UniProtKB/TrEMBL annotation:
Its EC number is 4.1.3.4. This is hydroxymethylglutaryl-CoA lyase. It comes from the Bacteria. It is an enzyme of class 4 (lyase). SUPFAM superfamilies: Aldolase. PROSITE patterns: HMG_COA_LYASE, PYR_CT. The keyword Coiled coil does not apply. GO terms for biological process: ketone body biosynthetic process; L-leucine catabolic process. Keywords: Lyase, Metal-binding, Pyruvate, Transferase. It catalyses: (3S)-3-hydroxy-3-methylglutaryl-CoA = acetoacetate + acetyl-CoA.
Length: 304
């Protein structure tokens, strides 16, 4: 069956499990070796972009406190981009020292969320990014941008798509090569996601946008399909649906990588990822963490 013209031939998966997935894990600090093995397994499964760590304040996000050790421990596979979050210059300096391939800055479309997440206003966050952009450029490091709460905020409720578009445009103008649209608390529905994208893509070309959808209300796959039909070809996912957000109460993990892969495979859209290896990794990490698996596909396929 031929692929409908509205769908892309391939989708790039940005695996955020080791960062977004683990940053909010309750209980003990996850051993560095487990994080390292997770990243190695993900790259072995064919994921060519792994967000591996976060150079943020360990007081704010203790699970990411070993970012340098994680970066030092992984087997760097050729062709794989290992990225990390950097909220400020201190983070960027750590990331450069750890030889991160790419960094990501992050803000939000909601003032209240930005305050809770990075302790400043949206405007201040963008000002903080200016030296990051300059130093990253001088070091030949590409910068990805995240905009959170694009379909709703845990504190401010509904967010106007125009507000999302304005922050995205600012981040693009500053030099981010791609902007990832975060439905941080997973409240979106397909039509709402499409409408948001319609407005945002008037300010930022759709080829420069990615979808980063959490699955709190079980809508993430449907929302993804809706935006893929509108031209989105970069999708952020988390193995086993790991994760949540420390500053968004009740937020569950990102849409599970395996579930997205199964859907894309069914549509005949290429990703370069091996589903069986991914499912094995999914079962391995959930066993390591002693938590249930958030991927329906991994549960259906089971473990050997
Ligand atoms: C931005 C700050 C640092 C401001 O936090 P602050 O407290 O305003 O900053 P500060 O400059 O006063 O620093 C406080 C302390 O942290 C240290 N510090 C300061 N910066 C760093 C750093 N980079 N690395 C290590 N340490 C750092 C700094 O040295 C100081 O240490 P002290 O002097 O008290 O000992 C803080 O709010 C922070 O780290 N926030 C991170 C929050 C976070 O990681 N959130 C999760 C990621 S975003 C997300 O998940 C959403 C996303 C991207 O997935 C998309 C979506 O789903 O929507």
């Amino acid at each position: 069956m031929a692929l409908p013209d509205s769908l892309p031939k391939s989708v790039r998966i940005v695996e955020v499990g080791p960062r977004d997935g683990l940053q909010n894990e309750p209980g003990d600090i996850i051993p560095t070796e487990v994080k390292v093995e997770l990243i190695n397994r993900l790259s072995d499964a064919g994921l060519s972009y792994v967000e591996a760590a976060s150079f943020v304040s360990p007081k704010w996000v203790p699970q990411m406190g070993d970012a340098s050790a994680v970066m030092a421990g992984i087997n760097r596979k050729s062709g794989v981009t290992y990225a990390a979050l950097t909220p400020n210059m201190k983070g960027l300096e750590g990331a450069i020292e750890a030889k991160v391939d790419e960094v990501a800055v992050f803000s939000a479309a909601s003032e209240a969320f930005t305050q809770k997440n990075i302790n400043c206003s949206i405007k201040e966050s963008l000002e903080r990014f200016t030296p990051i952009m300059e130093t990253a450029k001088a070091n030949n490091i590409r910068v990805r941008g995240y905009v959170s709460t694009v379909l709703g905020c845990p504190y401010n409720g509904d967010i106007a798509p125009e507000q999302v578009a304005a922050v995205c445009r600012d981040m693009l103008d500053m030099g981010c090569y791609e902007i990832s649209l975060g439905d941080t608390i997973g409240v979106g529905t397909p039509l709402k996601a499409k409408k948001m994208l319609e407005v945002v893509s008037k300010s930022v070309p759709v080829e420069k946008l990615a979808a980063h959808f959490h699955d709190t209300y079980g809508q993430a796959l449907a929302n993804l399909y809706a935006v893929i039909e509108e031209g989105i070809a970069v999708v952020d996912t988390s193995v086993a649906g790991l994760g949540g957000c420390p500053y968004a109460k009740g937020a569950s993990g990102n849409v599970a990588t395996e579930d997205v892969l199964y859907m894309l495979n069914g549509l005949g859209i290429e990703t370069g990822v091996d589903l069986n290896k991914l499912v094995a990794t999914s079962h391995w990490i959930t066993q390591q963490l002693g938590r249930s698996n958030g991927s329906k596909v991994s549960l259906a396929i089971g473990c050997e």
